[in-house]
């Protein structure tokens, strides 16, 4: 009979509990992205029910993104040394209330007010969750844990937004928002049950946020994030007309193709998670180059259904690695100030989503549809030299 080492058993149980906590946080990111992007599929029914144009209804997406960009650095500053476990639970409680308020909103101004609260929850939660892997798992496992946490982003695009849109179509858009509120409550309970205490060693102050800009690695990470995310969303916001008008793909196939884009993104997320553990700098540089080239090729090689589908899948695969690789970059660039660097990164990421959509809209209105792809490709490629400039930084190797 073999004796069991209680110390080893305890370590195994602790490791399992930490991975369960990582998974719970991943469900949180899944919910955040679903909440942020769900209105994309509900613009028409919401606009019709509340007597506003689809353009005005689009503010349901823009407003949370901008608010999240502000909330990401502000929330950590305001809460000081509050236990991050309790903070994440409180923010998920806010998300629950905000989605239920969205479902019950009697008019458009109150709906937008509820979406402001969604933005606060997104920015605050993501700012803390993005760098949480370093506190939940041993250092060698951080890239894998980060990939799992950001796997929720791709899963939201594949499952969350389409299912929410389907619920809105089959039942009512209010039911879709209500279901999101119920899901947020379930995630709240899970976080409360499995997250360990996460006491902050020090408060996140404005001075500490400002100091991060002195670090070249942080500056490069933020610039690369701005260029890549702005470029991506300037084009991806209009991917439906790109597929229809440039690639000649029928409307009925656009939904399944976007589902395929999301599946490729999930795969890319985990491929990047494995790659950054070995070669972070090379991985980010490869992503910037491959994404830029793919988007620039679209107006040339995507003018047929086959070419369009192939490039869309490659696009999804490459972009799927952006969140994991850039978040890992920020963690490595500022190992002693992960929360501060993550807060700045989340702010830039969300601001770039809104700016990308606005820039893309201006290009589409002024130039042929190809113009938005040229803009996106050039912006992403410009990130390459910025990333290259940090090649001698040992922390980012």
TrEMBL record:
Signal in keyword set: no
Source species: Nonomuraea angiospora
Domain Major facilitator superfamily (MFS) profile: 21-395
Membrane topology: Multi-pass membrane protein
Keywords: Cell membrane, Membrane, Transmembrane, Transmembrane helix
Record-linked InterPro entries: MFS, MFS_dom, MFS_Efflux_Transporters, MFS_trans_sf, Tet-R_TetA/multi-R_MdtG-like
Cellular compartments annotated: Cell membrane
Name of the protein in question: MFS family arabinose efflux permease
Parts of the chain that traverse the membrane: 18-35, 55-79, 86-106, 112-134, 146-169, 175-199, 220-239, 259-277, 284-303, 309-331, 343-363, 369-388
Main location: membrane
């Amino acid at each position: 009979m073999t004796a069991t080492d209680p110390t080893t058993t305890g370590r195994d149980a602790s490791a399992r509990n930490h991975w369960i906590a990582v998974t719970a946080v991943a469900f949180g990111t899944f919910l955040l992205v679903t909440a942020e992007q769900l209105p994309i599929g509900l613009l028409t029914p919401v606009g019709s029910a509340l007597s506003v144009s689809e353009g005005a209804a689009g503010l349901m997406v823009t407003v949370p993104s901008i608010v999240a960009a502000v909330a990401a650095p502000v929330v950590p500053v305001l809460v000081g040394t509050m236990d991050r476990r309790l903070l994440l639970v409180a923010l998920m409680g806010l998300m629950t209330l905000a989605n239920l308020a969205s479902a019950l909103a009697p008019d458009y101004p109150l709906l937008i007010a509820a979406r402001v609260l969604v933005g606060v929850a997104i920015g605050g939660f993501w700012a803390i969750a993005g760098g949480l892997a370093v506190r939940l798992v041993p250092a060698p496992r951080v890239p894998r844990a980060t990939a799992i946490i950001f796997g929720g982003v791709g899963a939201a695009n594949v499952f969350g937004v389409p299912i929410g849109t389907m619920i809105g179509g089959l039942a009512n858009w209010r039911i879709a928002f209500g279901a999101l509120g119920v899901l947020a409550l379930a995630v709240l309970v899970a976080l409360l049950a499995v997250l360990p205490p996460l006491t902050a060693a020090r408060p996140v102050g404005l001075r500490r946020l400002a100091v991060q800009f002195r670090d070249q690695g942080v500056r490069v990470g933020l610039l690369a994030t701005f260029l890549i995310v702005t470029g991506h969303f300037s084009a991806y916001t209009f991917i439906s007309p790109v597929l229809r008008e440039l690639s000649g793909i029928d409307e009925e196939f656009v939904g399944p193709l976007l589902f395929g884009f999301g599946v490729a993104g999930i795969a890319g997320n985990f491929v990047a998670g494995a790659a950054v553990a070995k070669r972070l700098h090379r991985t980010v540089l490869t992503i910037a180059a491959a994404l830029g080239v793919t988007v620039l090729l679209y107006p040339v090689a995507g003018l047929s259904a086959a070419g369009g589908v192939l490039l869309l899948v490659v696009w999804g695969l490459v972009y799927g690695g952006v969140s994991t690789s850039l978040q890992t970059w920020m963690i490595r660039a500022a190992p002693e100030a992960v929360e501060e660097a993550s807060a700045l990164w989340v702010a830039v990421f969300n601001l770039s989503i809104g700016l990308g959509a606005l820039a893309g809209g201006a290009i589409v209105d002024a130039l042929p549809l190809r113009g938005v792809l040229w803009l996106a490709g050039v912006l992403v490629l410009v990130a390459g030299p910025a990333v290259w400039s940090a090649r001698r930084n040992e922390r980012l190797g």
